């Protein structure tokens, strides 16, 4: 049996184990887990695109709501020397799995504390840095509008000017929620979508549909504007003359 076969089988077994763990956590608390399966490779690739686009320099990166580490696993090999990854995950069972993933990952051998795991919600994250890229796996549809607003505002506080936030929402879930949810819950879902649309109108720089994921998902990319340099507009007009 060759190395590729054993490696491929190991990946399949790992994904199978993660799938069962994710399902158990969803049964335990679907509100904070938000799905019954981890993100697939195509969705992970779309979420980590901003990191790949800036691979030529060290980055400060934050991943919030990492779950079993499906996106984390796609992200770690893209960490350039000098980059720093912080992970915020409130579920203690997911956190324990993330620690095992980081401790055993060959890409991180000899890189010290390049990845740090914070066992807390992103709203409670206390760090002394701002981030070039934030990746969010949080289930916004399961939160209240005020919670979503608090999380999004915290993301914007943590981003460098010019920094990028990526997050996703599953497609086709709104009709199911409308049929199965109470009137109050359906109203809350619509209010959450309206809150997110406000941020999209102000900051969105990209939106993609990942059909290969199960279920399919829409990935949003938001970018925090870079403040205008005082006097730059006047200088530009002077040069044009």
Give the tally of β-strands. Answer: 7
Round the mean pLDDT to the nearest integer and report it. 81
- Residue stretches low in confidence (pLDDT < 50, at least 5 long) are 1-17, 25-34, 232-241
CATH architectural category: 3-Layer(aba) Sandwich
Biggest β-sheet description = 7 strands, mixed
CATH domain fold name: Rossmann fold
- Summed up, the domain count is 1
Rg from Cα: 19 Å
**What gap, in angstroms, lies between the N and C termini?**
72 Å
Envelope shape: globular
Order of helices and strands: HHHHEHEHEEHEHHEEH
SS element count, helices = 10
Task: Estimate what percentage of residues fall within beta strands.
Answer: 15-25%
Q: Which percent range fits the helix content?
A: 40-55%
**CATH class, please?**
Alpha Beta
Fourth CATH level, the homologous superfamily: Vaccinia Virus protein VP39
Report strand order across the widest sheet. Answer: 3-2-1-4-5-7-6
